[in-house]
Fold this protein.
Amino acid sequence: MLEGKAVIEDTDMPDKMQIQAMASASEALDLYDVFDCTSIAAHIKKEFDTKYGSGWQCVVGSSFGCFFTHSKGTFVYFTLETLNFLIFKGASYLI
Amino acid sequence: MEGAQEELERRSKFLKSLIQKKKTIEQQEQHDHLQHNNVRVRACDMPLPLQNRAFRCARDLLDSMPSKKLDSKRLALTLKKEFDTSYGPAWHCIVGTSFGSYVTHSFGGFVYFSIDKVYVLLFKTAVEPLDHS
């Protein structure tokens, strides 16, 4: 059961996909302990690979900074309870 | 003929021992290098030269940061840009003291290491053409 509400910090993702991201995160927190960041990240990434095609990346934690290149419309960064979530798809470009 | 075979076997063993010695020396040098820079490789799928490039880049930047305060974003940015420039797009870098991740990376483009008290994940993803639609 979702105790806290997710807060979107930054995104360029369609609304529907954002909702899926937060739902997947909530699911993962039900399944795994809040300290098991790797399993939480794995759950979310696999969900997105299944629903939206392969190549998704997920980072979960309480203390990290990062730089990455993502495909257009595939990036979301949000907080839920004590954790921060970053989900994005690896870069593609137009030839 | 038996004499020739014995000679071939002797030379083969000699060459194998030479190769093994070279590997041992290289591993020892790498180990010494890591110890000196306080780097510990946690997981890796990356050629040695690229690894060393990442370690040196991280070491140099951490040493240059005032009062040794960690700036995760700056380190991540520096590593990503250096690798994008040197080894082609697209690299991604996560730096911090508390995070977990799950990623898909290109073959030979992944390293996860700790340096001082910070953890660094650096990986590459394939760059593919967008579908025309």
